[in-house]
Every structure is written in C-alpha cells, then in structure tokens.
Specification:
137 residues, alpha+beta, 6-stranded mixed sheet, 4 helices, 34% helix
C-alpha cells in the first residue's frame, strides 16, 4: 500500500474509535493486532493482543476514563505512521482531569492496523488515577 493509503487507514481507525463503531474498527485492524500502552498505576497499561485484547482495552477505557482524543499530525514512511495528538479527560474513579500529549507509532500491514505503540504522558495519567491513603481521590 502507498504511504497515503496507510495514513488513511490510520485516520479511519481513529474515526472508528471516536464514533464507537466497533464493526468498522474490527474491519480496520489485523486479527493479531498488538497494542502496547506503557505505564504503571494506570488501568489501561499493558500489551493487548488480538481482537479480544482490543475489545477488552476499549471496554476498560470506557469504564475507567472519559476522554476526548484529537490526532493532529500524521507522519508516515513505508508501513509506519506516527500520529501526534492530545487527549484530555477525566479518570472516573478519582474525578481528576488530565491532559496527555501523545505519539502513537502505528504499523499498517495489508491495509490493516497491525501494531500500536503509545508514547504517552504516563505521569499525568498516573497522577489523575492516584487515590490518597484513605482511598479517596
């Protein structure tokens, strides 16, 4: 696929996430997708694999976080698309807000998103997720 086609696949992927269109989302990702979210003290951190892993992380995200994600810039070379953006939102358990400037390194294989590696502000997300010693936000 061309670089432009790879960028469009990634744009379509973000649009499907934003609209909550699960069928479209699954059609845009490889069966063996791997999504790596770094961090500790952050409920979504870990490596999520396959359609089941994708469904699990998106379900957990809807339970844990209210967020708005804005991809702003797409830079591509070969099968790799780097997306630069910002997310703002709130951790539901603590009611604390966050701003997360991020970069996603995405690999597109055969017209589908095959791998995502997030580079995110783990400190901002951990801080917003932290409870105090009494278990209160």
């Amino acid at each position: 696929m061309s670089i432009e086609e790879n960028i469009q696949v990634v744009k379509d992927f973000f649009a499907a996430i934003g609209s909550g269109d699960k069928q479209r989302l699954l059609a845009l990702v490889a069966e063996d997708i791997e999504w790596i979210i770094p961090g500790e003290d952050w409920p979504l951190a870990g490596t999520h694999r396959g359609h089941a892993g994708l469904a699990d992380v998106l379900q957990k995200a809807s339970e844990e976080v209210e967020t708005s994600t804005e991809p702003a810039e797409f830079v591509a070379q070969g099968d790799r698309v780097m997306v630069v953006g910002v997310a703002t939102g709130k951790i539901k358990a603590t009611n604390r807000t966050f701003k997360d400037d991020w970069v996603f390194a995405i690999t597109v294989r055969d017209g589908k998103v095959a791998k995502i590696r997030e580079y995110i502000d783990t400190q901002a997300l951990a801080r917003a997720s932290r409870m105090d010693a009494s278990g209160l936000a």
